[in-house]
Write a structure and sequence with these properties.
Low-confidence stretches: none
Number of helices: 11
Helix content: 40-55%
Order of helices and strands: EEEHEEEEHEHHHHEHHEEHHEHEEE
């Protein structure tokens, strides 16, 4: 899938801009605060119905305006030519897809998938397990049809079990039905998560093996001794859970370990190496998503040169150029390492206006 045409209205300093991107690499070049990241934000909004920069939509809508609008024409692998639009204001969101109203944002996210890399994406390696779980759950939502429903079943049962624990109800039989639901849905989550991580590991190794000499391990880490069944763990930890008032172990507390030689990558790699690895990891995620669904996501990379040396930056760009995805990259200065001008387009962004980039 790729965008043929994009219109953005009243998103931050973008009053009304149009863009005809190419199907491969699209560079957004301009000074800080020129509107480059706002363009990426608008594409993300069109897919996810929310900003990646702030939870407050009033920070995104242009000053003295009530709504923002993002409209795009797409070439879709399964549906051919598609038009879609998002209008968002204070407390209301309207999404249209080929003229039909989209009532649930998740439907739009499936039809118009995006993969995003920002400076904050490095927390996949350096951040907390909660941040990695959030990333994993969102990735799984796209590649596993039944994932969202099983996740909801698990979380509903977990909440009910925690209600009983918080009230201090000391009747073991009242917990078993909720624990059974957690075991069944949690087992599905664990199996599908691990299968996805195995595919992701293979894809990221193919992308990274020429620049990273050692293969990274990406695995699901549970907080109970394997291969013991989860049902036994709930029974054994019940007394402890009852005293504390919440459930300590289970599929809601897993982590994704990203390691080299049994050491966390954050302890081994420099910030620049981590940035490059995360970019390649998200490209691998895009590949798995495309392989599983038949829909190629749009890849967004903000400030792509930050913390990368020239060799790492060139490696990233060459990897992106050889991928099948439409990519949008922002930066303050251009870095042109391509002889074939057909694989990229370059745009200049200044004070909320966009134009073709003119080399000087």
């Amino acid at each position: 899938m790729y965008m043929e045409w994009l219109q953005i209205k009243q998103v931050r300093n973008l009053e009304s801009v149009q863009l005809s991107p190419g199907p491969r690499l699209n560079f957004l070049i301009g000074k800080n605060a020129s509107g480059k990241t706002a363009i990426l934000e608008a594409i993300f909004l069109l897919s996810r119905g929310r900003s990646f920069r702030t939870p407050k939509i009033q920070d995104v809508i242009q000053h003295n305006q009530k709504t923002l609008l993002v409209y795009a024409r797409l070439q879709h692998e399964q549906e051919g030519g598609v038009s879609t639009a998002l209008e968002k204001g204070y407390g209301q969101t309207s999404i249209r897809y080929n003229g039909n109203k989209v009532s649930v944002v998740s439907e739009q996210s499936r039809g118009v998938p995006v993969v995003l890399v920002t400076q904050d994406s490095q927390t996949l390696v350096t951040g907390s397990p909660k941040e990695r779980r959030h990333w994993l759950d969102w990735a799984m939502f796209h590649v596993e049809q039944g994932y969202l429903e099983n996740w909801k079943v698990y979380m509903r049962a977990l909440r009910q079990r925690n209600v009983l624990l918080k009230k201090g109800i000391n009747q073991r039989e009242l917990y078993r039905a909720w624990e059974q639901a957690m075991v069944e849905s949690g087992g599905y989550l664990t199996r599908t998560r691990q299968r996805f991580l195995n595919e992701l590991l293979e894809a990221v190794w193919l992308l990274s093996k020429e620049i990273f000499s050692e293969q990274t391990m990406i695995r699901l880490s549970t907080d109970w001794p394997e291969p013991r069944p989860e049902s036994d763990i709930y029974a054994e930890t019940w007394d402890t859970d009852l005293k504390s008032g919440y459930t300590h172990v289970g599929s809601h507390n897993v982590d994704v370990k990203i390691q080299l030689k049994n050491k966390n990558m954050s302890e081994t790699y420099s910030r620049g190496q981590i940035k490059l690895f995360v970019c390649l990891l998200m490209m691998a995620q895009a590949k798995v998503l495309a392989d599983r669904t038949g829909i190629k996501p749009i890849v967004l990379i903000d400030d792509y040169m930050a913390e990368l040396d020239n060799d790492a930056c060139k490696y990233l760009l060459m990897s992106l150029a050889s991928s099948p995805f439409q990519v949008f990259l922002s930066n303050t200065e251009p870095q042109n390492c391509f002889k074939n001008k057909e694989i990229y387009k370059m745009f200049h962004v200044e004070r909320g206006e966009i134009s073709d980039y003119q080399n000087t």
